Amino acid sequence: MANIKSAKKRILVTQTKTMRNKMIKSRVKTEIKKVLGAIAANDQAAAQAQLLVAVSEIDKAKSKGIFHKNTAARRVARLTKAVNKMAAE
């Protein structure tokens, strides 16, 4: 355990930021699962609606520095491709 005041503060700040990052990543994963669930159920309207929500959450995570911009772009591209593929079929 840290004895120095600044080290104790760093531990608290790190815990706070870790929890925030986990919450946001969890929210992104949940929205992605909802899109994939709509695709699996062949519900095109729900998939399109959920895609917008998922893209919004991914962009928020990117803007907060939780995802790298290329990671966010890759996830959005793959989700969009899956939804568009379902729409084409």
TrEMBL record:
A single Gene Ontology CC term: small ribosomal subunit
Gene Ontology terms describing biological process: translation
Lineage: superkingdom: Bacteria
What keywords would UniProt list here?
Ribonucleoprotein, Ribosomal protein, RNA-binding, rRNA-binding
Q: Does Phosphoprotein count among this protein's keywords?
A: no
Molecular functions (GO terms): small ribosomal subunit rRNA binding; structural constituent of ribosome
Spell out the InterPro entries in the cross-references. Ribosomal_bS20, Ribosomal_bS20_sf
User: Could you tell me which SUPFAM superfamilies the record lists for this protein?
Assistant: Ribosomal protein S20
Q: Family, per the entry?
A: Belongs to the bacterial ribosomal protein bS20 family.
Write out the function statement from the record. Binds directly to 16S ribosomal RNA.
Q: Which HAMAP family match?
A: Ribosomal_bS20
Which PANTHER family does this one have?
Answer: 30S RIBOSOMAL PROTEIN S20, SMALL RIBOSOMAL SUBUNIT PROTEIN BS20C
What is this protein identified as? Answer: Small ribosomal subunit protein bS20
Provenance organism: Anaerotalea alkaliphila
**Underlying gene:** rpsT
